[in-house]
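Per your request, structure below.
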């Protein structure tokens, strides 16, 4: 894939440690990547943990956000950079969909459809997740993604599943 500039959507999640600070720091680090500009960051949302077997109300709740970036990094290189940011924030991979200090996912890249062993774009479950769709519409209100089309109506349907998170003093 060539090094042309593309917009991309990156999803952030954290349910361990200082969740809000971790997401803020990771967003800054994302914007500091060479060839990458952080265009917009959604508000933080709180949601129940989703595990392989479904919603886990006993697990710590997640804070989630979405960033709209512009980058000249090819998707595989961007994935490598995101994994480095996760690792720098103490991400440990003990179980699939387990609790984590930081999770960064490439959700969508303008004009890219691909499926490899480690990366599928668009993200195969993104449109099922309120904690991705709602903040995505915050940063890109006119987003359209096949097969759904406009995301705004879907975001309106899913908004009740999460709450906007406000820091407490």
């Amino acid at each position: 894939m060539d090094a042309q500039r593309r917009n991309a959507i990156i999803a952030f999640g954290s349910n361990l440690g200082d969740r809000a600070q971790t997401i803020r720091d990771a967003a800054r680090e994302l914007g500091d990547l060479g060839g990458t500009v952080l265009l917009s960051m959604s508000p933080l949302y709180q949601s129940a943990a989703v595990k392989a077997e479904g919603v886990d109300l006993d697990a710590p709740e997640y804070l989630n956000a979405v960033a709209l970036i512009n980058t000249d990094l090819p998707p595989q290189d961007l994935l490598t950079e995101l994994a480095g940011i996760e690792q720098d924030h103490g991400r440990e991979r003990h179980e699939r969909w387990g609790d984590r200090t930081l999770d960064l996912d490439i959700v969508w890249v303008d004009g890219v459809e691909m499926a490899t062993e480690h990366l599928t774009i668009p993200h195969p479950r993104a449109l099922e997740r309120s904690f991705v769709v709602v903040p995505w519409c915050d940063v890109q209100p006119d987003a359209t993604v096949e097969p759904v089309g406009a995301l705004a109506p879907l975001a309106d349907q899913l908004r009740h599943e999460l709450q906007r998170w406000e820091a407490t003093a």
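The first strand starts at residue 6 and ends at 14.

Regards,
D.
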